[in-house]
Amino acid sequence: MSTAPSPAASVPFAVTVNDFSLQVATANGSGSQTANNVLLRSLFRMGVPVSGKNLFPSNIQGLPTWFTIRASRHGYIGRKRELDVLVLMNPETAAADAIAAAPGTSVVYERKLAVEKLRDDLRLFPVPFGELASKLPLPPEQAKLRRLLVNMIYVGVLSDLMGIEPVEIEASLRKQLGGKAKAIELNLAALRAGLDYSAATFPEKLPHRVERMDATAGKLIIDGNSASALGCLFGGATVCTWYPITPSSSLCETFIELCDRHRTDPGTGHTAAAIVQAEDEIASIGMVLGAGWAGARAFTATSGPGISLMSELIGYGYYAEIPAVIFDVQRVGPSTGLPTRTMQGDVLLCHTNSHGDGRHPVLFPASPEECFTMAQEAFDLAERLQTPVFVLTDLDLGMNNWMADPFPFSDAPFDRGKVLDADGVERLRETWGRYRDLDGDGVPWRTLPGTDHPRAAFFTRGSGHDERAAYTEKPDDYVRNMERLARKLETGRALLPKPVTEERPGAKAGLLAFGTSHYGTAEGRDRLEREHGLPLDYLRLRALPIGDEARAFLERHEIVYVVEQNRDAQLAGLLRDALPSCASRLVSVLQYDGLPLDATTVVDGVLAHARPAGGAR
Length: 617
Fold this sequence. Notes:
With 617 residues, the chain is α/β, with parallel strands linked by helices. Helices cover 37% and strands 17% of the residues. It has four domains: 7-209, Pyruvate-ferredoxin oxidoreductase, PFOR, domain III (Pyruvate-ferredoxin Oxidoreductase, domain 3, 3-Layer(aba) Sandwich), CATH 3.40.920.10; 222-404, Rossmann fold; 419-495, no CATH class; 500-614, Rossmann fold (3-Layer(aba) Sandwich).
């Protein structure tokens, strides 16, 4: 029996090619992840720039989940607030999703949900998914699989309605399922069922179409956590101690898999890495500091709640000057917050972590490529500066799939910093002290345990100490030590990743963003010039503390819009502290609802200041 789409689907429309946002609404634990990843990879294999974002609940199973694919022939891969195509499979959310849709949105849905009773201004494509799944040729013992195969049926329907090539869907499915021949066969049958039904039922297709491009050749799809783990492997990390927490756990899990594959002697079975799942975050950072003190390259990965627990020992690492690398994959806080939503809310927490005075280098990767390279840079910086170094990603970058160029391989040697061997201790025996600045850069020389020289040993303490690491409570010794630590951070400014800047003719104002805020900011910047005639220069900050390039950018612009994903404008506050003379120039553009930043937020935020209601600015 044929089911015609709603009248809205028959209204003439202009075809839009390779430019849409598609959202699939299902329930967590329904098996939709495979189908959604197959959709994403199929578009990627057709040469279309894409990204995928999974919005999922923090419980294990049953609550709603939404997977959104952004496809853009222009290369925009940040979240798009406006949805063009909806697939509604979850009875719990179908009504709300349909009511929230913009007029003209194309909606594919389970026919039993009766979305046509809710709206008459949508392009509706009802499909009896359950009925089609019941007709799949499955033996009785596999009947339960029908619930999972429904997902591949909607992939088939979208293939027909949007022009996604079945050959690429099949190739993506085979990659996703590996060598599981039976599973591949069943999913291909479901795919064909969806294709055939749609072709026979819907003569008019969706206005958003897919056509082949050549914009993804040579690229790969990877999540940020996996890229960070690869960076740790290539960066020489030999110690990983961690406690599981969303959204960082997969970083350490991937590092474990990489070590099993690349650091294990096939003859002896010995793995050249020490990996410990600690009893809590406090123990994990303590182990990292112990390993760093002993000369290993060590790291942990956590999120905001873990950083809070680690604070005292992070301060110890800063004061005792021990290398450590800490990945913070940020999520929504405070407290438990929204564990499966994204945010940039730990900027202040990490940069100024610990009681008392302290500032730490913070790196802001914005892509899988930078997760890979900055992970390696972090280990060099930690040893060069003898201090904890933070790498701040977020759930959006860490857990979602992104396009990436092949990662660059560096054959540069590791920078172990100022490490004295026995000959070095002998050469400096009359002047060396563990915490003495011999070179004027604030960075002392260190020795490693086991250095064969009677003067190589020192006592590592978190209490007051002088230049030779002896205990002291003398005010002058404390002040001298703290001023040297501040001088060391000044040295670090020149070693940190430089910002990326882009200028446009006629721009008097600028945009400043960091991390994953880059994508919505870059797209919003283009829209502001194209749609509103407002050119803006742009600086993407890649590290704290800021260096000369960022200072110059702030000083030469009348207004700088600082875009970040938190309520309290944390980065803007740090910039005002660093450059009080520029404080009045900074205007915050904020998003903190747990969703990845979208370009519309940037456009609206800038226009609200540049062109307020009632007149031009």
